[in-house]
Amino acid sequence: MLRLPDSWVWDFWIVEDEGTYHAFFLYASRALHHPDLRHRRAAVGHAISTDLVSWERVKDALVHGSPPSFDQTATWTGSVVRGDDGRWYMFYTGSTLADEGQLVQQIGLATSDDLFTWVKHDRNPVVSADPRWYAPMGGPAPWQDEHWRDPWVMADPDGDGWHMLITARSNDGPLDERGVIGHARSKDLLEWTVQPPLTAPGAGFGQLEVPQVENVDGRWVLVFNCLGNEFSRSRASAGSTGGVFAARAESALGPYDIAGATALTDESLYVGKLVRDPSGRWVFLAFVNRDANGDFDGVINDPAPVRWDGDTLVVDHADRQAALAN
């Protein structure tokens, strides 16, 4: 379990290098007293592990920039890949508070030779929302902010460059279900071209947060997150609960069955990640969003195995309950 005595921990992303797992995570001081205040105080911490259970905190990876930087308010969720040149590339969300009190979200880049020391790219941001397909800032409540965050970067399965999947909102469709997976492409991890979204609005989700695509035991799956208060009215009225979701996928780039996505967890856990453990087995980690008392806990739980039950990806129930009890 990754717990900080003085800070809340929430969204995270993990990369493995030569047997060591590197977890990069958002954190903010518990001196804020209320966890809802953490988002605009977020920095990117760093911890290492050899088993995904015991973690050693090391020096922070990133902090927010100074005005007029695109990340002057906070640094948010991202992902890390190793480029063809052997360097590490971290793509992360930068947020800026606009004059209207709304947040502009854009994607930035930092690079590292060793995963410990990170330098922000001198031409940040590298990816911004394209209004041809994506909703700009200033929309109706409660979606006034510009939603363009949580970049998940992966190599093209056919070797044709790189893809970035992004939490985004469509500029079309019912307001309460405009959540889509945004898309951008690159040949070199530096220059990016925004593409139309990989999914369509209308699947019942106001947003599809922190996407991740993996091939688990021969089957592609898209993992995303959505709280119940961000569902469409129709999905909420059907009695669905929020949490971490898995959508079947025909390939790494879809199509994804968003409307048929099934819950991996309820809202007690959030921002679920699929990772291979040291044995090569796929496991699931998430942060504790609600503890036994219903309070925000702000720790990353121990891994639990995942498996396919027919066409449905599930987290092993017994292991998950044991993890929640720790």
Automatic annotation (TrEMBL):
- The EC code for this enzyme is 3.2.1.26
Q: Which InterPro entries match?
A: GH32_Enzymes, Glyco_hydro_32, Glyco_hydro_32_N, Glyco_hydro_beta-prop_sf
> Does Hydrolase appear among the keywords?
yes
The record's top EC class is hydrolase
Q: Which residues cross the membrane?
A: none
- Keyword tags: Glycosidase, Hydrolase
Annotated GO biological process: carbohydrate metabolic process
Q: Where is the Glycosyl hydrolase family 32 N-terminal domain?
A: 16-288
* Pfam families, A to Z: Glyco_hydro_32N
Q: Name one GO molecular function term.
A: beta-fructofuranosidase activity
Family to which this protein belongs: Belongs to the glycosyl hydrolase 32 family.
Q: Output this protein's name.
A: beta-fructofuranosidase
